Amino acid sequence: MRRREFLRTLTGVALPGAASAVRAPRGLKITDVRVVVTNPERSPMGNFVLVKIVTSEDGLYGWGDATCTGSELAVAKFIEEYMRPVLIGRDPMRLEDIWQTLFHHPYYRSGSVHMSALSGVDMALWDIKGKVAGLPVYELLGGRARTKLLTYTSVSGRDFREVEEGARRMIERGYKVLKVQVRAPGLESGYAVPPSERQRAATEKAHQAGVPPVETWEPDAYVRTIPKLFEHLRKTLGEEIELLHDVHERITPSQALWLARALEPFRPFFLEDPLRPEHADTFRLIRRQCSTPIAMGEIWTGQWDGLFLITEHLIDYVRHDLCHCGGITTGKKIATIAEPFGILTAWHGPSNISPIAQRANCHVSLSVPNFGIQECRTNWPDAAREVFSSAPTYSEGYVNIGDEPGLGIEIDEEAAAKYPYLRRYRPLIRRADDSAWAY
Ligand SMILES: [Mg+2]
Asked: How many A from CA of 142 to the centre of ligand 1?
């Protein structure tokens, strides 16, 4: 009933019965493409780049997420200056054709800026298609292959005890899988761990000065520490809870192999991004010598980037970011490529992508047969809830979305305007000898 009413508002045509074909309004065209950059949380990683595609049909538009932290304004400009003129006047229902057109049009293609822009447009077009059909996007992708999505959250601390306490709180909330990170002794900071007071003050000073903060990183202490953290958590929390860890590509191939082997007795759920994407062949080192499951992909910007690791059985989870790899269209294709290789999905779902992309992740995850787990932020602050009408909901270790047409999310543009772009830079990661290192 709701679907028929919705279609009636779009087409002005009453649908006589369930057998009626769903048709897009005749002559439907894209009339405008707008970009909204907003940072409701006022946080260094909180600038969201939202794309609104408006059509010739009154009240029919779609929202997408083109957020690429660190290049937000470049992506916004790319959409406005280079994609908008290509999109205006096109039939928004021809999604695959538009995707291919926007991918090939620049000639010098791919990369994080181009592909984040394309991802946002792709999501907005799926939103429109779902609204026209009166169906949630996951129905258009094949329907629910499951009723809810296994998820995990991050727990970090300055020492093992802090991580353990945080883990106990999350286990109490029903989480079955946790990402665990700890600051290594002797370091002021690290990936996804609380910085020291000294580092915190230095970072804030850099933000105020409008320059990137600097963090010093030495991998040796970190590599030695993580297996001890897992040993501690297995001793204190037991075997039931699943634990995973994110290396964030900050170590060398031989360190990654040593770490993967050292973690093996503690049965990690997966080891995330152990090696740099530029060193794809080094994944063989780990695969040949240990059984620790490997997840990779959040930094990839297309369906081709991880292909070698899939077809050579070198990873267990594909972790593309649907905000950077080409959107829902690419996510579905990657899952299809990975399925016959027995590789599962674990789409990147960090705090620095908006609830639109979090929902897009869920639509694909719900529909693919080879779903593994869905990283998903659920603790949105009030300001974000003012801007975004919905986000995936959490219950007892799982996330879910409703059955609203399209992506199922609305943006309050007036509220978004209250929280404009905030200039903040990612930290520069330097070794103790002041040489550059991977983030
Ligand atoms: Mg990661």
From this structure: 28
